[in-house]
Structure formats: structure tokens, C-alpha cells
Amino acid sequence: MQRRMSGCFAAIALAVLAMALPARAEVVADRDYVAIVPAQVTDNPAKTEVLEFFSYGCPHCADFDPLVSKWGKALPSDVVFKRVPISFGRPQWASLARLYYALEASGELTKLDAAVFRALHQENKRLFDDKSIIAWVSAQGVDEAKFTAAYNSFGVLSQAKRADQMAHAYKIKGVPALAVDGKYLVSGKDLKGYGDLLALTEQVIDKARSEKPKK
């Protein structure tokens, strides 16, 4: 009886210890993330910023988009999710970056964001130059003159250029890529899918949050 009671108490102790331990292991540098050196300034230091570097032209980004879009909308209020369309110096991807910012500027991004991925990767539309992009957007019921003005505007051109500058500063080698608070590039090497990538990103977000000055 004494041995059974001892075993029972040991089991209870182990259960209590398990509840006291963190649910997830600490993230490890160069395995789960790479430090961004120098760290980049974010738009709002009071928030934890998550950037998704992507391109409409990337098939992996197309697969990732439904998951990351839903995930980004469910993040806590102190976390800001932003997308950065980049080109890696490819003229076709540069046009697609301008497409993203022009849709945003003209108020059509919510309506056509997923449709761009679908047009490129399921419908095999070749939206790689100004003429084909403007014609496709117009065919979606968007005012052609309004969109064309946004697409060719100084603001959109500047945003697309700035996006590529950010990709260089963040040392982005491929897309999709997630960066946290200007400090960490998520880089899990043994991930089995995009769900794992997002779960790991949440851990890196927790790390960045814990490092912010206490109010």
C-alpha cells in the first residue's frame, strides 16, 4: 500500500511539474530564427511588427496566402501584421509589387488580393507588364483611369522601391519570409508545413514582446 501511495504522489508531482513548465520550448538562434543585423526600425515601437515578404509571382506565396491572411487577422492587438511585395530585381515581379500597392491605394486590395494569386497560378494569366495588369484589373470591374493613375503614381513607385530596399536590409533570400519586430527572421529548418512556420513565428513574436521595455 505504501509503495502504491508513493507512486501516486510521484505521478501527481510530475503532473504539477508538467503544468508549471512552459508549453513550448524556447526558440533558438540560428535554428528557429536569424538575428537581423543591424536591427531595423519599425513604424510603431509600441507594437510588435510582423512583416511578410512575398510576391504575387511566387507559387509558394500563393499557397501560403490563405493561411497567413487568416492568421494575420487573428493576431493580438499589440501585434501589427504587414505585407511587403518584393521583386528580387525581376522586372515582372516589380510590376506585381506596383500592382499590390496600386490596389491598396485605390481601395481595391481586399476585393482583388486573392484574385491576383488565382489569376496567376490557377488561370495562367500573364500579368507581368503594365498593359496586361491594367487590362486585367479593369476587367474585374475597377475604374481603369483611377487604377492607372494609382499604378503610375509617385507614391506607388516609391513604395515598391522601398519594399526592395527593405528586402535588402532584412537580407531576404527567398519568399515567403516572415520577419518579427525588425530583429528576427523566422528560419525554422525542420518545419513540416506552413502551419508549423506560423506556430514558430508566434514563438518568435513572444520573444520579441518579452524584450520590449516594460510600461
Automatic annotation (TrEMBL):
Keyword Signal among record annotations: yes
Disulfide cross-links: 58-61
Entry keyword annotation includes Lyase: no
PROSITE patterns per the UniProt record, alphabetical: THIOREDOXIN_1, THIOREDOXIN_2
Gene3D superfamilies tied to this protein: Glutaredoxin
Domain Thioredoxin: 14-210
Domain of life: Bacteria
CDD domains cross-referenced by the UniProt entry: DsbA_DsbA (cd03019)
Gene Ontology terms for molecular function: disulfide oxidoreductase activity
GO cellular component, one term: periplasmic space
One Pfam family matching this protein: DSBA
UniProt entry keywords in alphabetical sequence: Disulfide bond, Periplasm, Redox-active center, Signal
Annotated localization: Periplasm
Record's signal peptide: 1-25
Family in the record: Belongs to the thioredoxin family. DsbA subfamily.
Protein's recorded name: Thiol:disulfide interchange protein
Source organism of this protein record: Candidatus Accumulibacter meliphilus
